Amino acid sequence: MFKEIILLTIYFVSFQLTAFAQKTYVDYGASDQYNRALNLFNDQQYNAAQTIFNTYLQNVDERAANKSSAEYYSALAAIYLFQSDGENRIKQFVDAYPNHPKALEAYFQLGNFYYREKNYAKAIQYYEKTNEKVLSKKELKNFQFKIGYSYFSRKAFQEALPYFNQLKRVDNQYQSAAYYYAGFINYELADYAQALVDLEKAEENDAYKASVAEMKANIFYQQGRFYEVINYVESLDGRVPSNIYLIAGDAFYALKEYDKAAEYFDNYRQGSNKSNDRAVLYRMGYAAFKVNQNKEAIELLEKVGIEKDSLTQFSTYYLGRLYQQENNSRYAINAYQQSKSLSFSETIAEESHWQLCLLLIDNADYSNAIKELSAFIEKYSNSSYATEANELLSQAYLNTNAYDLAIGFIESLPELTPKLKSAYQKVTFYQGADYFNQANFYQSVQSLKKSVAYPQSKELAGKAYFWMGEAYSTGKKYNEALKAYLSSLDRSIEGNEWYQNLLYGTAYAYYNTKQFQNALLYFKKYTNAGKKNTYFSDAQLRLADCYYVTKRYGEASTTYQNYLRNSSDQMDYVYFQLGVVNALQNKNKEAFSNYEEVISRYKNSAYYDNALFQKALLTFESSNYELAVSRFKEMLNQVPQSNLVPYALSKRAIAYYNLKQYELALVDYKNILRNHITHPTANGALLGLQEIYGIKNEEGDFDKFLAAYKQANPNDKEVSSIEYDAAKSLYFNQNYGKASVAFKNYMENYPDNALAEEAKYYLADSYYRAKEYNNALPVFYEVLEDQDTPFKKRAVQKVAELELLADNYEKSSNYFNQLLKLAENARDQYNAWSGLLQLAKIRNDYADIIKYADLIINKGNVNTKAITEAYVSKGMAYFNQGKYEQAKTAFSAAIETAKDENAAEAKYMIALMQYTSEDYQTSINTLFELNNQFASFDQWLGKSFLLIADNYYTLGELFQAKATLNSIIENASSAILIDEAKLKLTLITQEEQKLDSIQNASDSVMVTDTVKAPLDSIQD
């Protein structure tokens, strides 16, 4: 029994010892885990620490001493490991253990974590939840700095300042930093006095000297203590931040010591690569301007750019002055344009406007000078420049080709001084000449009449009357032309440049009014001056015609012969006329020879049929009837469509009659009566028919032909004549709508009247002139059905033009070529060549374009507008083939010929070729010449400014390109032009913005919104 008790006791004790030993082992293992985890946590091995803490918490007893701490560290590790449940676990810990020491500092630690991560918003969130009272003194200072700095970094300066102020009061590791940040905040809040106190305390720490220097200098500047800024900056040793130079430069600038300001600004630019504020650029540019550093000033002020603000107004004004000093008037004009358009300073706007006016006058840009001077006078009527402005405006008007504006201005004045009368005489003359070159002859005469109303200059009056005569003559108003020419002769002398042409024009006016004896005198005066005269050959030919008409046949023959020795034009006409003159002198052999020249050498001549006819007629008149019949037959076979057919039939019938071949004579007479019953020969044919039937003692079909003749040629012509004359009166008074109705009614009422065919032509032409082309064309075709119509040539021309308008190019070409064959003078030839030129342009047939343009230029004998148009067509043909030199020659000839719209286009094309050839500056020069010479042609003026902008852009002159485009947008009247300018401006602006963003990215390795103090010396 005792043995069992002992064994039982041993067992119990053994059990107890074993149990104790097991408990001691477990407690020792958990404590080791906790300590290992804590060591890992302190070594910032948060992942490993958290794993062990979590294992510890799974195995430890709820009553274990370190359980709550393990929960805290595990939750804090979750924060540090950016686990999503970290913050929530910390909150759960604080709720579960509100009195735990770790709970009291949990939010502080969270704040510190987010502070280190520079997540200042989160840091503030937890710092605000921290109970400062539980923090140690060291932790409190740490807390105050970090929450203050967190607010500071968020620019919550009012919230940050109290914390930095607390740190300033006692010695601590954050004191210098607190002074610095408090100083910075007071600086930002414009409390400069307190900021200066704080920054000077911070400056005692060498770590803050450089950062403090800029703010301190700026405070002196903001307080207007400019000398102190300068003294302070000059006292700084060692490496100085570049912004310090900028502040010092601004201080000198404020003191108007521009030489020192420019020096410091230059130092600033050398040490800084960042983009500058526009106001800074302006101040730097202005300082450079004041010390005559023009190149630097221009570079800086151009960077200010173009905005709608006072900086732009002032910068562009000074740019204008700088460009003037550099003799770059074009850039100056652009700059002043920008400055005067803004109203932030009326003084600068007025001065810019005035300088712009002066520059425009100096550059002979009179059209724009007029516009700007007029605007200046209206806006600044009380300006000290007002008197001079009025004088300059008068001067500009005298030199302008904006004639309507000039005339309107002078006519608006209540009284004209002799100087203004002289200006009015000139400008109305120039306008008249311009209208003439545009082939607007009516308006030309109206302007020239105004010019001669103020004959201040006798010479100019003589010239005006001459061009008035030319305009009337071109419009075929020969009586009025003659009066004008004679008035010019009274006021002109032989030395005047127009005098020889005046003789020529006077001669033609007499010629066209059938005063051939007087015409002869003036043609003779003109030709006596020699072959140097432009129209010598033509005048010689007309002189021969005058001798012929006045029956001085010997002199006519001699003059025709002289013409043949001097010219190769119109040879067919001259040989034909020689034949007529020789025949009249009974020199039949010579006459036959002359007619044969036409027949054998000029089969396409308009005189070919007449030469055949005259040759036959000469034989007929020599009573050689058999040969005459043969020659009339030859003529009728060769040219069956000739207008002379009725005459040939009539003469051949007489020849047959004389040969007693009555049946053949009857055939010819009946041919006339069937096919040409309204022709003048029809009456003779009827009489011949009657006579032959009488000889044959037959009635035949005479009565039938007599009735037909009466019907076609009614005896009562009075009523029809009245209606016809009324219709023609409407036509010649240019009332074409009513004229067409009247002619149509006449043709319906008198279809068989002899005038019906003529009425048909006038009907067609009335439709044509009223632009009723669809009605006109078929009627013109009807006119051409009558082979005897005297309107054939004109109808052919109109059909050719109308088929061209209808895009029937092949038909149009056929009729223009037919017109060329029918041409009797240079004007007819021009009309044909002009049409063929248009067709060649449609086909892009460059060889034909050049061919017909050359014919018009060399032989057209037309107005200058037609010649300049031909030169431009020729130039465009060469241009489109890439033959720029030949194109330039043609365009230059157009410009030399006249200053009309075609010449403006030619000037533009030369500039475009220069641009295409990358000769940009020359292109700009050419375009400015265009603006001066052709300012009245808005289309080419607008296009020229767009091309100027393109040139500037390609040269990298973006400021000038933008200024030019802005000028178009503000001043142009064409919506299309404005839209194109806006598009180009947008593209340039976008490119500038792209370049700026690249530059800024390159210049700014790190740009912060606030100044950061060095924190190297601050330890947590």
UniProtKB/TrEMBL annotation:
TPR repeats lie at residues 104-137, 868-901. The keyword Ribonucleoprotein does not apply. Keywords: TPR repeat. Transmembrane segments: none annotated. The keyword Transferase does not apply. It comes from the Bacteria. InterPro entries: TPR-like_helical_dom_sf, TPR_rpt. It holds the Pfam family TPR_6. SMART domains: TPR. This is Tetratricopeptide repeat protein. The lineage of its organism: Bacteria, Pseudomonadati, Bacteroidota, Cytophagia, Cytophagales.
